[in-house]
Amino acid sequence: MTRVELERSGGFAGLSLRASVDTAGDQPEAAWVEEALSGVDLAALAGEPSPPAPDRFVYRLAVDRDGQRHEMAFGEQDLPAALRPLVERLLHRARGGAPPPSGPAQDTPPE
Amino acid sequence: MTGSIRCIVPPVILEQIARRGSEPQRERALRALGLDALHRSLRTGAPPRPAPAPAGPGDSPQRTVSTADGGETLPGRAVRSEGEPPSDDVAVDEAYDGLGATYALYREVYGRRSIDDAGQPLPATVHYGVDYDNAFWNGTRMVFGDGDGDLFNRFTVAVDVIGHELTHGVTEHEAALVYEGQSGALNESVSDVFGSLVKQRALRQSAEEADWLIGAGLFTARVSGQALRSMRAPGTAYDDPVLGVDPQPAHLRDYVDTTGDNGGVHTNSGIPNHAFYLAATALAGHAWQVAGRIWYAALRDDALPASADFAGFAAGTVRAAAAGFGAAEAAAVGDAWAAVGVDVRARG
Predict the structure, then answer these.
(1) 3-class DSSP state for residue B174?
(2) Contact with chain B for residue A100, Cβ under 8 A
(3) Alpha carbon distance A84, A80 (integer Å)
(4) Is the pLDDT of residue B297 over 50?
(5) What is the CATH topology of the domain spanning B181-347?
(6) Is A84 part of a structural domain of the chain?
(7) The pLDDT of residue A51
(8) What is the DSSP track for B36-69?
(9) Closest partner CB to A95 (pick from B150, B228, B260)
(10) Known catalytic residue: B165?
């Protein structure tokens, strides 16, 4: 089982959004969580963010997986590409939007 | 899917009036009408007063607004360059006008030639990313998202956002306040102060007439809130089931210790924001004239360290008030800071 907690703070708005997902208690979510985390080296990403930049988002992510907890933080300018599908999906939940029908939260292009 | 209302938000605010007329909605609509009037006047009006001779770099803005077309590649495709007529893209034109209004405040009131005081061009990119709920200055360029459509409209909608972001560039060139803790909250507050002054000046409002809101019009109709922050009444800008309650304190005793947001820089900025509001209303008239000049002088003071705390900056504003204006102004500024729990009046 995997548990993921996300906090996005900062940005111009300074609003904190939080979302979490637990594949044990939330079975329909298990597939995309596992897909989003597959091939991500969590231990290598753990650590503190780079120096802050005005009005950029700050992401804090905690992943409990295989008996280990990984805590990491990133400025939005340094968010690893490998984590973006997971982060975007969780942000969608945090905003109160319904989950996209399937796949990572890429959605449709604007306009 | 519910998350699909996105970007190019049409005049949402006017639709809201038509739909329902609750008090906050009427207020929001009035603000929007004010900003529309601003945009019209900026487009049709004569250029700002003639620049003093000798002309040099930065005597007029050099704006170029591009679109990222929903991507994240900068600069994107140029749509409107300096002196060109309005485009058919409202975000492009709002960005162009907001950059112009910000340039004009700094140039015409404070004598500053653009961000670096040496004529730095003002490029901007709109339509950045997908559902992107933010705007930022990256050191050389303004970048605006279209918002997610659920909570946020496009970020060009509020002229104070543009003033806020460009002021981060000014601060970086002056005090370079460290973006963390109290110095970070000061950095944020300075951006809110001059962002609000850009809007107040564009609307020709006195301190008493101004709404002192930051980001009015940014929230969609689904959000229960009038703006992101209130300098007049920190902590009252929104109260919403999804976003929660505006967490800003208005007094040092309520300073929020947190690990998020670089130590709550967007939260604790409520304290110096409210001090500016109190000073500006005590000094009366147009806030950019006296209170704004005092804050600008304090920001430029070589004695202000990058790690300044609230008390250090407050003392700088009192000194700047005394040097630039007089004892009465210095006392008003000292009293304003004391009212938010930062009493530096005994320092002399």
Answers:
(1) coil
(2) yes
(3) 7
(4) yes
(5) Neutral Protease; domain 2 (1.10.390)
(6) yes
(7) 83
(8) HHHHHHHHHSPPSSPPPSSP-TTSS--EEEEE-T
(9) B150
(10) yes
CB contact under 8 A, A10 and B262: yes
Under 8 Å CB pairs connecting chains A and B tally to 113
Catalytic residue among B127, B266, B274, B286: B266
Q: Chain B residue with minimal CA distance to A52?
A: B179
Active site residue B266: yes
Q: What is the pLDDT of residues B144-177, one digit of tens each?
A: 999 999 899 999 999 999 999 999 999 999 999 9
**CA–CA distance, A88 with A65 (Å, rounded to integer):** 20
Residue A56 sits at the chain B interface (C-beta within 8 Å) = yes
A residues 73-92 lying closer than 8 A (beta carbon) to B:
76, 92
B8, A100 Cβ separation under 8 angstroms: no
Q: Which of B101, B81, B84, B88 is nearest to B39 (CA)?
A: B101
Tell me the pLDDT tens digit for each residue of B194-227.
999 999 999 999 999 999 999 999 999 999 999 9
Spatial CB neighbours of B83, under 8 Å, sequence gap ≥ 6? none
**Closest residue by Cα to residue B281 from B232, B330, B215:** B232
In CATH, what class is B7-45+54-173? alpha beta
Average pLDDT on B106-125 reads: 97
Q: How many domains does chain A have?
A: 1
Verify whether the Cβ–Cβ distance B70 to A111 is below 8 Å. yes
CB < 8 Å to B218, chain A = 13
The domain that contains A49 carries what CATH number?
A: 3.30.350
